[in-house]
Amino acid sequence: MAEPHPVVEHLLDVFGYRDTVGPTELYAAFKDYQKDVRLCPDTCDEAAVSAFLQWFMERSDPATAGEESDQLLLDLVSDSSSEEEDQEVCEVQAESPWRTRSPLSEGGRGRSHDADDISLDAEDVAPHFFPRPTQARARHRHLLFEASSAQDHRTPHCPPRGSPRGAAGQTAPISRSLTPQEHAMDMLDFANWMVFGNQSFRPRQRDIVEAALSGRDCFVLMSTGGGKSLTYQLPAVLSKGLTVVVTPLLSLMQDQVQALCMLRCGGVPASYLSSQQGVVETRAVFMELAKPNPSLKLLYVTPEQLVKGERLKAALTSLSNRGHLSRVVVDEAHCVSAWGHDFRPDYKQLGLVRSACFPHTPLMALTATATPEVRKDILSSLRMRYVCKFVVSFFRPNLTFKVIQKDYKRNEESMLPGYLHHMLEYIMSRGDATGIVYCLSRDESEGVAAAIRDCTGTSAAHYHAGMTPRARMQVQNDWRQGRVSVVVATIAFGMGIDKADVRYVLHFSLSKALEGYYQEAGRAGRDGLPCECVLYYARKDVPRIVQLLHHGKRSKAQFQREMELLSQMRDYCEEEKQCRHARLLRYFGEEWTQERCGDRCDNCLPKPKPTAKGGGAAQGPQGATKATQLKRKGREALSDVGFRSAAALLADAPTPVPAVSNSRGAAAMAKAKAARSGNERPGIAAFLSRGPAMAGPPPTSG
Length: 702
What we know:
Elements: H1 6-13, H2 23-37, H3 46-59, H4 70-78, H5 83-86, E1 101-102, E2 113-114, E3 138-139, E4 176-177, H6 180-184, H7 187-196, H8 205-213, E5 218-221, H9 228-238, E6 242-246, H10 250-261, E7 270-272, H11 279-289, E8 298-301, H12 303-308, H13 310-322, E9 325-330, H14 345-348, H15 350-357, E10 363-367, H16 372-381, E11 388-391, E12 399-405, H17 418-429, E13 434-438, H18 442-456, E14 460-463, H19 469-480, E15 486-489, E16 502-507, H20 514-521, E17 531-537, H21 541-551, H22 556-574, H23 580-587, H24 632-650, H25 665-676, H26 684-689
Parallel strand pairs: 3-4, 5-10, 5-11, 6-8, 6-9, 7-8, 9-10, 12-17, 13-15, 13-16, 14-15, 16-17
Antiparallel strand pairs: 1-2
Subcellular location: Nucleus
GO molecular function: 3'-5' DNA helicase activity; ATP binding; ATP hydrolysis activity; DNA binding; four-way junction helicase activity
InterPro entries: DEAD/DEAH_box_helicase_dom, DNA/RNA_helicase_DEAH_CS, DNA_helicase_ATP-dep_RecQ, Helicase_ATP-bd, Helicase_C-like, P-loop_NTPase, RecQ_Zn-bd
């Protein structure tokens, strides 16, 4: 073998190529590489490693790193959320126009002033899209809705089309006198309570709302579940004119609009524009925007529509010139930056659109994950000026972070790979608790979901970009309404996913960057209750991610940057001493005064770190002892399905092996072990591809 070189040794030892490609082949390739590029023998830095790795991928067969199929390797790249993947033909969620009173002056000092008179007559637009509101009275104090000449103050109620069953039968808010506590509230607290039902503001929310109402550009960095939506929705309600919200996903638009329509106040006029809407629905929205005083308060659009839609840009330019464009909000603003983990090219053009169409309209940018480098890029790209910056602490004490080293040795009881057996036991021990499992590929998500259903009895469904929009929406609805406990997904199950009672998030495979991992893990525990974020890690996962990144046809600079992000993700997984909370916070540029979180990560726990062992019963991520693990019935069910699955897998059976009873467990185990000889396939990929019995359809409604 050639003389050791630091670049090759780095890939073999740190990136896991010793177990996949092997030193002989890698050194042979490196020798050719040196001839091509004349690399200095002593050069070993991130740039040198990335350059050689990219050269190696270009000349190698795709199966060299990770031994995966092209479809599997492309999943991480192709699953990045885009409008095309998340579009669905559906009815517009448009709402009734109504008259508004802005309770705050333009300076945000709390002085009331009347808005221009807004006609309630919407028949000329589309009566079935903008129905008349019902009436409700309130005494002693003005609410946020102006009365007509013939009636007292009213609160509209107009359930949106496509709202949950029974919503149309709900009654309008009941007239009542205000309580002494409500009388004592200032206007912001009163609006927050009466419109959104919040008894108080979360940390920094009030400061952000006040800054937005003062007309300043605002940058908001707030962790997932911190309440970002309120910081622009409340100013939209209290301000004259329209607030445009740029968001990357159609499903997120639909959720936000429906939530606004179902508020306790009777609903806030909001709608969205989608390229999948019909002509009538789109015309209704544009006719409303063309009115002298549009009644819509919030309009959700995608970045592609705002950048490429000339009609929309013309309408917003007209609104801005007339003084009826209150502000523009860029949600998920990290997509603006090429240094971020979800870069979207059309987001990069939003700054140009702002300068050309509405240069004097205030802009608010929000994100849950952004490093200092990404923040600077966001401010520059969006051409924000005199910015009020709000950075809310990333520390979430209710999250417990753990990393479990994968063990590919088969469990003696179930004959499943050790880490899969460990995960199934963990999910079974959590009963019907709501959870998310992230996988690297579409096939992996389908197989793991089937394994959870068959082995644990827990309701689970897979979710990925290869499904139809309607099927993905069905999974989301089933999960939100409790018909499905666990969603097993790729990164397509990403931005905009909001469910308060998620008790655990498991990463079955390595993430490509800490930003994406933190955002995905942060979907747990939004209700503030304890929850766990567990990542299953093996160094041999790293070459799979490298191959995925290479398939994205990135430039050399992009590839090198993403390799740096992957290296930081790998270092996080292999860290055994530093507090995981501290490491995450410092990655995002936050100075954390504490060195330890106490017991909120595996590195700070006094007990030994859990590992997903395959040779015996696995210790749960919660440090559960054998006495607190699965009951006998659950263990027998797991073993039974494990025997069948292992036999079907290891024997290369074209059809599922018939179910065996526990009395025949020994025979099934012997058969599986016999089939395994000379055919060892560690890892979940082969298990998923060979298990026809594991590919049942996800649960359906009802």
